[in-house]
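Input record (one chain):
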Amino acid sequence: MLAVALRGLAKRKFRASLTALAVVLGVAMISGTYVLTDTINNGFDTILSQSYKNSDVIISGKAAFENNNGNGVETPTFPDSVLTKVKTLPDVAVAQGSVSSDKVRLVGKDGKVIDTGGAPPLGFSVDAKDQRFNPTTLVDGTWPTGPSQIAIDQKSANNQGYKVGDTIGVEVNGPVQPFRILGVVKFSSVGSLGGLTFALFSPKTAQKLFGKVGRLDIIRIQSKSGVSTKKLVAEIKPLLPANTVVRNAQAQAKEDKKSVGGFISFLRYALLAFAGVALFVGSFVIANTLSITIAQRTREFATLRTIGASRRQVLWSVVLEALIVGLVASVIGLFLGLGLAKVLNSLFVKIGIDLPQGSTVFAARTIIVSILVGTLITLFASLRPARRATRVPPIAAVREGSVLPESRWAKYGPVTALIVLLVAIALVSIGSFASGLATAPRLLALGGGVLVLFFGVSMNAAKVVRPLANVLGWPAREIGGAPGILARDNASRNPARTASTASALMIGLALVTFVAIFGQGLRASFEDAVNKLFIADYALTSTGSFVPISASAGNALVGKPGASVVSPIRAGSAKFNGSSHDISGVQANLPAVIHLDWKHGDNSVPGRLGNRGFFTSSKYAKKHGLRVGSLVPVQFPTGEKVKVRLLGTYEEPKGGSPFGDAVVSTALFDKHFAHPQDQMVLINTPDGVSDANTATLEDDVRNFADAKIQTRDEFKKNTEKPINKLLNLLYVLLALSVVVSLFGIVNTLVLTVFERTRELGMLRAVGMTRNQVRMMIRYESIVTSLMGAALGIVVGTFLAVLVIHALSSQGIVFSFPGLTIVYFVLAAIVVGILAAILPARRAARLNVLEALQYE
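The corresponding structure, as predicted from the sequence alone:
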């Protein structure tokens, strides 16, 4: 039967290739995901391991808690006297202290901060006399040794046109300061630093610039020969302050990796989910293609049965065909993933995620998973068509127009389809509304429900094919005349086949519709919140959305003639009520720039906060059982604890607010954060928004390259940009499933052209032109695509309604993006036109006489 399977594939190379493409694209996504994330991991691992080269033991600061909320927890420093004590230990060969910062923004020649693509702008101290612990190497120039001297990374120098001897602006917790470039440096053995920038300074310059005079962030230690790391750690521990920790170099690198490891894991699973969608759609394409080809090969299978082949042998011949297609497609997809990894990385750079990368990693896990998944998906999709092939009776070999007999279970099909759909709706509803369940079971019910829902809709879709064909085929009938009428009739001739073909496109468009509605809901809720809260004339923010800006930028506006009210909103993290939360700091003049709907308290609350008060949203207070007057212990990253009293609560708009879960005074905030940062600074001017006032405020902050002055409308627009970029990325990733479904439509049309060869010959014989044949196939493809679009939009909207309703407490509202949905419909028409190109050409080129004799 292997020979039979191989001959069958050899005869149908084109159809087998189209089927394989569905698997190729899905497997390429899996392979590309693993290659990309492994390569990024390798880049970070290389950077971190180099950061502690020649080090046996590392002393570093220890924050009181880990950050889980997005606002940075600044690791506390420790006195440089610790270094002096460590150097006196008998087992220490060399010890070197250093300071660092992730807020060292380099300024390009255009006066703007260099975009890091989401990576931190790093700065370090470097000892020019001893390079044993230095992870960087000089490309040009020398190491900085004095004030106002700097060495910058090679990528920044090349991209911005800087060279040794030039002056570059540097912004760190204050206005831009000029530095003379003494050297250009690089990290060796790192393929790409992504958007990461870094700068090096002499130790004293770095301590002053970073606000850490007399302090250190880290001490690297090399032990004497023969001294174990464990012994050295034990000797060092008694010398350390409470807010420090000592680890071996490997453990320290692992600890540093935690801040990025979680994001890389999330990125990997998210991309694998999109690969899964593509393969899921591909399984529909494979099953549909095999079902059609098996129906067309009835006499072939019957002949095999007549000459002695058993039902099992027929089954295995079909399964072998699927196995060969799946294996070959998986291998091609595996290597195609190497190129796709670069495409994915380019997409992330476009939306502002530019991460370091090491040498390309093509792990054994990538090879095994990619080939196994692709092959197994193909095999699974082939089982039902293969079983249908075994039902071909030997007598069909001598009958003209024989068709496959129905299964004995066929009579239960409609009931089964309805039950599957109802079960899917029940699972999705449980996942969306069952608040009493734990998060994991809810997510499992939701994910499983969505999967079963697609099957349920696909199984029931055949029932609506004819009415949909009548409605969606009306333009083709009116515009195309006879070809349009035939196309409409052809689309509804075999409802099960058309439904299966349309279902592949339905899945992709359902997910795209869901993303569009969800994204529109995010934008609508955010805009509503800004409209309700933002009563200031202007906002001062960082040039990077969602990135805090140094508090010194807002302080520079205080007292300036162009700013009558300057009200900062500090951003940081603290630990209270058992976990880490965002915390904000505000001033007494907050009511002049933010409108709060107070539930308990009034506009006097911000002015009464002092060093022992806070306010919060009524939702947070209710969740944690807090009332006005409740005392809450707050722990700051330094470990210091303060008890604060609840003075008021406000009703938070559905779209959220700029505040953390606790809002304290800037006086208390600044007391416990060494380098306070503002989420934004809201400003009122004497006579409101005007071009003159905008220019005045921009001039007031001209020494801060990272500062951006915005009106309320500009603030909304700029804040939504990252959301829009993320949505566009999701559309691109989901487009892969649409491309797979396109091949499904091509496959179906090609196969139906083969199936209707004699019919097409008859139409040509009675006068239909080649162009009319092409029009008929094209209209049929468009009608099928529009069916998939109609089903997908309905399913996607249904899912969006459920999920958004479940998340309504988080501030997301339902908003239907009508224009975007119109674009999706137009895209479905384009898909139909593209899918029809090859089948329409083949149909039009049929020889009339040969077609009439075709069996």
